[in-house]
């Protein structure tokens, strides 16, 4: 099907607004390079009127963070009857909530680090010191702390000593009202993007992430610096096959569609651990999905066009 009017939706009001705008511009440029009529729009108060006045053939949401990945914007697109690329609202809500996503994929047989998820109120009502001590007793050290909802590693930190845990929780609660505290798994961090071809999810080459510290944080993700990205990841054929299988399993089990990216850790003994999944992967110059597309010998604009055409078919 020939694409007529495509709207790339980016921006919004989450902490990840600037990253979303960069992703949106990258997708818009890639589609324009293929002579596809495309408009980049922000998710603001003018959006619904513009969709009603000039309905697009399809919307490509490249919104990161809340509303973009929690299903709410996609709910609105369904209300106004505009087709869109990517997961439907219910699947977004499951994937967006990290503890829920971990529970779902664990039932499907994937490994994921042991963890607890607690709202801020628990620490207030039961006493932060007592709760934190029990967490360390149960999960051990080191730990990884992050908001239960959110992306780009905002509010995330690695805890090596009990004395560091309180500050990690404060940082986490600056970005969300609940914290996911996981047992930290050391090893090789990889990201595996999944795109659907003829309705069948297929994994792109895994991207290995090598950072100078133990945390692949916001700066490491989006600013050129000391982070090294190796594609395809330096994995044995057996482990490479298992990270591919894990990403496709997560995509299917969580009910996603069209496109996703799964973040994994491969421990030194070769065990593959699921960390989280992204329903709106970054598309910036430093993002992982475009790197995987390039290494696979594909063109980003062609991939985006194919996904949009398939969704309209």
UniProtKB/TrEMBL annotation:
Keywords of the record: ATP-binding, Cell shape, Cell wall biogenesis/degradation, Cytoplasm, Ligase, Magnesium, Manganese, Metal-binding, Nucleotide-binding, Peptidoglycan synthesis
Q: Where is the ATP-grasp domain?
A: 102-309
Q: How is the cofactor bound?
A: Binds 2 magnesium or manganese ions per subunit.
The protein's superkingdom reads Bacteria
GO molecular function per UniProt: ATP binding; D-alanine-D-alanine ligase activity; metal ion binding
The record's section on InterPro entries has: ATP-grasp, ATP_grasp_subdomain_1, D_ala_D_ala, Dala_Dala_lig_C, Dala_Dala_lig_N, PreATP-grasp_dom_sf
Listed under catalytic activity are: 2 D-alanine + ATP = D-alanyl-D-alanine + ADP + phosphate + H(+)
Question: Which residues are listed for Mg(2+) 2 binding in this entry?
Answer: 276, 278
Location relative to the cell:
Cytoplasm
Q: What does this protein do?
A: Cell wall formation.
Q: Which NCBIfam families match?
A: PRK01372.1
What is the recorded name of this protein? D-alanine--D-alanine ligase
Query: What is the gene name?
Result: ddl
């Amino acid at each position: 099907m020939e694409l007529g009017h495509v709207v790339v939706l980016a921006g919004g009001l989450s902490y990840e607004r600037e990253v979303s705008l960069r992703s949106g511009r990258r997708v818009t440029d890639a589609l324009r390079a293929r002579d596809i009529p495309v408009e980049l729009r922000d998710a603001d108060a003018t959006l619904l009127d513009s969709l009603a006045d000039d309905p697009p053939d399809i919307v490509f949401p490249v919104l990161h963070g809340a509303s973009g990945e929690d299903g709410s914007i996609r709910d609105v697109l369904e209300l106004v009857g505009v087709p869109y690329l990517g997961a439907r609202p219910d699947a977004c809500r499951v994937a967006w909530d990290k503890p829920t996503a971990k529970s779902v994929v664990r039932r499907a047989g994937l490994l994921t680090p042991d963890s607890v998820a607690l709202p801020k109120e628990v620490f207030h009502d039961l006493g932060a010191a007592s709760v934190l001590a029990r967490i360390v007793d149960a999960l051990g050290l080191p730990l990884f702390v992050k908001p239960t909802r959110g992306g780009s590693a905002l509010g995330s930190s690695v805890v090596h000593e009990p004395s560091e845990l309180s500050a990690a929780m404060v940082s986490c609660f600056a970005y969300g009202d609940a914290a996911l505290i996981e047992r930290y798994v050391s090893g090789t961090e990889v990201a595996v993007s999944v795109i659907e071809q003829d309705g069948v999810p297929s994994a792109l080459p895994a991207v290995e992430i090598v950072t100078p510290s133990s945390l692949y944080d916001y700066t490491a993700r989006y600013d050129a610096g000391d982070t090294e990205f190796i594609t395809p990841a330096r994995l044995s054929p057996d482990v490479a096959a298992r990270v591919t299988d894990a990403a496709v399993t997560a995509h299917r089990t969580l009910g996603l569609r069209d496109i996703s990216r799964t973040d994994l850790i491969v421990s030194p003994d070769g065990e593959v651990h699921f960390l989280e999944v992204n329903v709106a992967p970054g598309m910036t110059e430093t993002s992982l999905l475009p790197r995987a597309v390039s290494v696979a010998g594909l063109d980003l604009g062609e991939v985006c066009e194919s996904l949009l055409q398939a969704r309209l078919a």
